[in-house]
Amino acid sequence: MTLLLDRLRILSMRQRLLTRPWFAGLSAAWQWRLTSLPVVVVGLLFAVVATVAVLCAGTTDQTLAASSLFAVWGFNFSGAGLAEPTDFPLHRLRGRLVRAATARVFALWCGLAGLLLLTSSSHTAHTYRPSMFAASTTLMVAGTAASLKIFARVRKLSTELHRRAQDVIRSLEEIRDAAEPDERRKLRPGARRSWDALHVVLRNRIETGFHLQGTFVLPGPAIRSLETAVMAAIDAPEFDAVKHRVALSRLRVIRAACIGHIDTLV
Fold first, then answer.
1. pLDDT tens track for 43-64
2. 8 Å CB contact between 142 and 109
């Protein structure tokens, strides 16, 4: 409940910022910079906490170090995507994919390191050394496997996003190039099915398959806006060049954001 209230407060603060007259009067570049500040602040906070943990681990206060590392893991687990900007969502998609995976892997290793420090601080006797070495090795192998799985998920998701966005683009291009109204009418059901397939992929979380936590591919309002643009182009009684241009431009941004992460062999 507390986390939900925090999310609502942050979203309310963002909404108030975006509706301020002085903010609306800024250029798009400055709006982009200002709304990127939460991501920068959270990244710096993670770096500071990890640095404190390393310094504490080098002394005798390993419990504080473990607590700091657990705090990083806990924030990412419960608040992943909370700092992500909601404006310019399509143009931020490339960075959103990278940040979600990188933050999850970083937090995962913080949690494993915290667990290892907490365990070692309570088992300092010489007789525990073989057991601690085995535990450390097991945690490193598990962390490596989990990290590779997270990055593989992002590559697979990006590949599917690219494929589905390409299908919708091709469907819209076929409608655009159709010579007769009857031909366009026959192409519309296929175009709607292509959008349905893309919509399902857009509702995924990036770094995890658990729907209750993680970062969505796109914010809900961005998906609804994209759906409105695509369906307007598909269902227009007569061919509308402007509607098609708007829908195609947005879909091409999604496709371009995924190109660097494509892996058809995952």
1. 788 778 777 777 776 666 677 7
2. no
Residues β-bridged to residue 172: none
Task: List, in sequence order, the alpha helices (H) in the chain.
Answer: 2-18, 21-24, 28-35, 37-57, 62-79, 93-122, 129-177, 181-202, 220-235, 241-258
Crossing angle (nearest 10°) for helices 62-79 and 2-18: 60
Write the CB contacts of 140 (distance below 8 Å, at least 6 apart in sequence). Answer: 112
- Report the 10 Å Cβ neighbour count for 109: 20
Tokens of 184: 């366009």
State how far the Cα of 83 lies from the Cα of 35, in Å rounded to an integer.
9
CA-CA-CA-CA torsion sign (108, 110, 113, 114): negative
Give 123-168 pLDDT, tens digit per residue.
Answer: 665 666 777 778 888 989 999 999 999 999 999 999 999 999 999 9
